[in-house]
Amino acid sequence: MQINVVKNARKNVVFGVINKIILLLCPFAERTVLQIILGEQYLGLGGLYSSIISVLSLSELGFSSVIVYNMYKPVADGDTGKVNALLAFYRKVYCVVGGVIISAGLLLIPFLPELISGSYPDGVDLTQIYLIYLGNTALSYFFYAYLTSILVVHQRNDITSVINSCVKIGLTGTQIAILFITGDYYLFSLLMPCFTLLGNLLIGWRVHALFPQYRPAGHLPAEDLKRIRRLAAGSFIQQSCAVTRNSLDSICASAFLGLAMTAIYNNYFVIIAGVTSMMYIIIASFTGGIGNHVATKSIEDNYREMKRLDFLYLWTGGWCTICMLCLYQPFMQLWMGDDMLLPMSDVVLLCIYFYLLKLGDVRYIYTSANGLWWEQRYRALGETLLNLILNITMGKILGITGIILATMISLFLCNYIWSVKITFRMYFSVSRRNDYYKYQMKQSIVTAFAAAVTYGVCRLIPSDRLFLHLVLGLAVCIVVPNVIYYAVYRKSDLFQYAKNRIFVHF
Fold it and tell me: How much is the pLDDT for 242?
């Protein structure tokens, strides 16, 4: 069975956009109300605990991608028995992961005060709040969580989008109501595990209704288990560095600079996370189909397809980078006030950091679809170690600027340069690597030029009325960079393909 990538992707994008808009707006509403009612230290505390839990969740990262990777071929071949055996193994793994997270999290409790520089909210028991966050994360690995792999393999991310949207709206609305009615941070936090459980149950119900042939049953052969463990080890190492990037930044900011600066940094990072989640719609919409094509098409066809997708993705990513550069500060002033702003130099660094992340996203789908996690293990370890060392040294010297710079340096050297070398050596072939660098460099130069022009135009807009400045700036960002992109690319083969095969079908 060969999946129609573009057809399924269109459906995933529609529901994905709706979902991501909801997931983007809900944190703004939640953080705004939390800031107004309880203050910035509560924002910092929630950000710190979320970062700690993200690090604890690394115990799972070796399996989710590997299970999905191993499902591509049996799903394409119609081998239901193999898929069911993988599901049974995946369910066991998730139960173990939940237990590991709880155990490791409990061991960290004595060290919680050491991770906070300065004061924390009066009347708050750090341990009790932490246990709620820990329980919420551990709970997410039970009750049908493993069934999301079926939706990914069949490229039905639209189902996940609908469920996540409903659950997020319910959670945010209830949390805001609790804050206004009681102002109780404990009740605010306790709602998280309740809605996490609800989301898992809804995923299980929908998957069983659409794919009744898939039930966890059977056992995997010993050779399959051995191969999966090796792939899982590589995946764990590689994906752990991705998860720990922001987590290490937040933890170091809290340890060196206090909860207030952590809250300010996390406010800015909420924007990056929100835009990244919107961009992820594109990645998630194509992931299942690309895995199917890697299993059924030639390397040359897949490289051609990768360039076409990457072209569109970097156009979108570059435009998002420009919007953030021009609109970050007026939005933050309007949202949180002048006291919660970072310097413009840090904003520029955050925008470059975001763009560096986007450079490798499409390539990473092909890395995962080929199961190249073990081959990337030293690269991932190098990035995590370099990021940690630079975060500590540069964070102490330069503050939040040093923490952002540290992540950028490790990201570029390891996640981009080193990772490209491995992926092309192991799959696309070294001979195509220069071509890949060439077209990505061209797009980066065009984006830098468009960013400079757009920012210059936005600077001409009067800034005495923030909301009007934001609206006019958004209009400039919609028009100017896209006109520049169109002028540069309108005659290119990549743009013509996008216009004829993708845009006309939406």
Answer: 65
